[in-house]
Write a structure and sequence with these properties.
This protein folds into two domains: about 160 residues, 3-Layer(aba) Sandwich (D-Maltodextrin-Binding Protein, domain 2), CATH 3.40.190.10; about 150 residues, D-Maltodextrin-Binding Protein, domain 2 (3-Layer(aba) Sandwich), CATH 3.40.190.10. It is globular, with a radius of gyration of 22 Å. It has 16 helices and 14 strands. The chain starts with a helix and ends with a helix. Strand 1, helix 2 and strand 2 form a beta-alpha-beta unit. With about 325 residues, it is α/β, with parallel strands linked by helices. Helix 2 packs antiparallel against helix 12 and helix 6 crosses helix 7.
Length: about 325
């Protein structure tokens, strides 16, 4: 009798272990930047259906959102994300430097492992009462500009680099770019922690005349807060902001979710995913899908980070590390 009871307990324990293993293999976490939450909500629905159809397996995708750099630090400090989907390469490079993701992560998927891109636009109050049309208008006296802190979010780094690159792209010198960006940040009343925090400051706290943010946030604002509250202004020049992705090798090795994580990121390049991205204001890599959405994802003169800054890693060292150019230009209010 005792033997049977022990055997039953052993079998029950094995069954529990097996069920826990199955759960681990069919549940994954995507750690992402905050402005992408709506896109990934819709993408996850599409991927779950695709994965079920092609493999017969059910899968659950959990999301964690915040400022891109804050998310990278959380993953580095132990957040068990299976994948990271960021808005700057420096955040994934940081995870590669600590061996959390593969050193060659950028070669694991097409287009430098960036299935979509974005750019920086201006959101202004409906009717554009301050008549803001281009970067120069952000430096005018009395204009209050809302941006993300470039030390806590990729959104902020891209806004900063876009403003700096605007001066260089239009024939200015590095010294003129520094003076211009310094003047712009004197018009910043408060630095937001992340893209969604910036939107909240602008719309819910009603602070600022213009919000510099990712193009994709325009769609999110209209959906969440109602159309007609703000309008998008496309500056004459802006920056290409890649949205890189990577498998978190540390987590998938522990959980056995490598195949699922790779499938999840690979499907971002599918026609279905590229269409969903375009609907959320993200610029798809697919030329055909991008052309289809040219009315909202308008053609704009763009420059890459490499054109003026070498790489995001170089820009990080020169501009955003402690004691860098940003610290010299911006005085904390």
């Amino acid at each position: 009798m005792k033997f049977k009871r022990k055997l039953t307990l052993v079998i029950a324990g094995l069954a529990l272990t097996a069920s826990q293993l199955v759960a681990a293999q069919t549940t994954m976490l995507n750690a992402s930047y905050d402005v992408a939450r709506e896109f990934y909500k819709d993408y996850n629905t599409a991927f779950i259906a695709h994965y079920k159809k092609t493999t017969g397996k059910d899968v659950k995708i959990d999301q964690a959102h915040g400022g891109s750099s804050a998310q990278a630090r959380a993953v580095n400090d132990g957040l068990d994300a299976d994948v990271v989907t960021m808005n700057t390469t420096t955040d994934i490079d940081f995870l590669a430097s600590t061996h959390v993701v593969a050193k060659d992560w950028a070669t694991r998927f097409p287009n430098n492992a960036a299935p979509t891109t974005s750019t920086m636009l201006f959101l202004v109050r409906n009717g554009n009462p301050k008549n803001i049309k281009d970067w120069d208008d952000l430096t005018k006296p009395g204009i209050k500009v809302i941006v993300v802190n470039p030390k806590t979010g990729g959104n902020g780094r891209m806004a900063y680099l876009a403003a700096w690159g605007y001066v260089l792209k239009t024939g200015g010198t590095p010294a003129q770019a520094a003076a211009f960006v310094g003047k712009l940040y004197k018009n910043v009343p408060v630095l937001a922690k992340g893209g969604r925090d910036a939107t909240t400051i602008f719309l819910q706290r009603n602070i600022g005349d213009v919000l510099v943010t990712f193009e994709s946030e325009v769609v999110s604002v209209n959906r969440e807060f109602g159309a007609g509250k703000v309008q998008a202004v496309h500056p004459s020049v802006s920056i290409v902001a890649e949205n890189p992705v990577a498998v978190v090798e540390r987590t998938v090795a522990k959980k056995g979710t490598g195949e699922l994580a790779n499938a999840y990121l690979s499907y971002l390049y599918s026609d279905e995913a590229q269409e969903i991205a375009a609907q959320h204001g993200l610029r798809p890599r697919s030329a055909a899908v991008l052309k289809k959405h040219a009315d909202t994802l308008k053609p704009i003169q763009l420059f890459t980070v490499n054109e003026f800054f070498g790489s995001l890693a170089e820009a990080q060292k020169v501009h955003f590390n402690d004691g860098g150019q940003f610290d010299k230009l911006y005085t904390l209010k």
